[in-house]
Amino acid sequence: MNEIPPMRIKNVFRYLRIFTLNKFTQIKVPYSAQIEVTLRCNAVCPFCSFPLLPNRIISKEMTTQQIKDIIDQIAKLGVTTLSFTGGEPTLRKDLPDLIYHAGVVHNFMNGVATNGYLMPSLLKKNGGLEGLDYLLLSLDYPTAELHDKMRGLRSFHKVIETIELANKRDKKVIISTVVMNDNIHLLDSICELAEKFNCSIELFPCEDIIRDYHGLTYQIKDIESLIPKVSVWANLMLKLREKYKNILTDPISIAVVGRGGFGGYPNYHQNLLRCYVAEAYLFVRHDGVIDYPCKIHPFMSFDALKHPISKIYNSKEVREIMVNHDNYDFCNKCRLGCAIASSMPTRWKTLASKYILGYLHGNLN
To answer: Domains (ranges, CATH) in the chain?
Structure first.
């Protein structure tokens, strides 16, 4: 039996502390946090609305020092897991410095969500990106021809190179696959590829995400043509799980999505899991704004560059949002993987389904 690294043991105790506080006291601490360091991206994916955003929105990025200050505040709040996302976070030249500040200075369990195109050069030039624990790598097809065509970027071979470099540097790789009508018949091959390269894999259906910025909405036209039937996806996922042990998409997540997702108050679509995003997950936008109850459906926003994050998170207004969970009209049929994953640590049963069993299978080691 492999020895459990001291860092993993420390993270278990950190989680237990947060769980105890959240469950048995009035003190609340998010289980995880994510900073959107940029909206810029070098890919043009047909399911993503970022390319529709005007430059006046995209250009409002936080400075290096502002992001470091945000990281300091998140650490002070007691959060143990922090990741960077975009857009494409590798477009920021200060990303290695931000990773170091989060993973080394503050000892966060630290990750980056990326399309992988620029990651090989970062891993080679920056000491293996000290402080980085894992990579969430986008891979939607098992061949370069299909993947690169969909992403509008020749990134397939860069993803494979990233995986090989990460394996050598003891960085965990989780492949993130957006399941669409066009690739659902290829999921077996994608899972096989992930297994070949010793990667875990997460597979959630494509979603119609409407992004709201300052009262203006941005949505992909005809995205319904990309979205697979949820029942077909769910049945296939259950079959694939029997074949591949590296799949992180767990039975409860599959059931939550398959039964209609969150919401539907008072007659909920499913009774397996309520949405705990407002309580369990802290998301800081590229411009330093924190939205509640979530980044997709904001009706209350706070500027974390002007107000302390602890005061925002513990404010009366946010506490009232927390207790409503997915009772809002806009929560109806929400099945976003990020919302499900961030809600699962709040309950022992769902935690065991995704994280404990995932760890025992070696997918989170």
So the answer is: 28-360 (3.20.20.70)
